[in-house]
Amino acid sequence: MLSQRYLLKLGLPTYIQHAEAHRKPRWLPVAKSKIYRIPKRPEISVDERLELRRINNAYNTQMRAIRRFYVEDWIREKSSLESATSEMSQRLEADEWLKCEELNDKWNKQIASDREERRKKELEAMEEFSLLRMEAKDKALKERIDRASEKIKKEKELSTTFVTRENLEETIENVLANPIDYNFAIDLKGNICEGRDTQIEYDDKKKAEAAN
Description:
It is a single chain. The protein has 212 residues and is mostly helical. The protein has four helices and two strands, in the order H-H-H-E-E-H. The protein is rod-shaped. The relative contact order is 0.02. The model is unreliable at 12-19 (pLDDT under 50).
């Protein structure tokens, strides 16, 4: 498919040349035939030079005025923005401070409530521990009292057998009338032979008597 540019080139007369045909690309160096060519400096008359200087000075003056105007306007706008921003920032900072105070008060109340609840639980635990300890002490004291009472009761029961001044003679007569021999012997089979005068019969002797 032929491009529009190619068709236009075909329709133009052959003697018309395009400017782009004589334009050198930018990446090519200066031509050798033009390296040492020094262009002639244009000659400007005095009147024209003065007029150009006057126009240039007027242009610079106007540009400085325009720049100063825009700079002053920018400074005024910046100062107004800064003042507005500072007021807004102060207002925002005050609002943020109030919010922080409210949040801090809320946290303090929550912490105080938690602390009070924790103290109550600790007091309840201490009271429960104290009650358990008192109950354990009471139980131990009661057991000691019960053991002491039982011991006293046994001693009272045994006190009826004690030898007193009143029953001393009766006890002596009873002991003399009923002597008790605490001597005894035990053979290899575990038979007990009570009394000091008890005769021990051996198995060999029993077998001999049985044989006769």
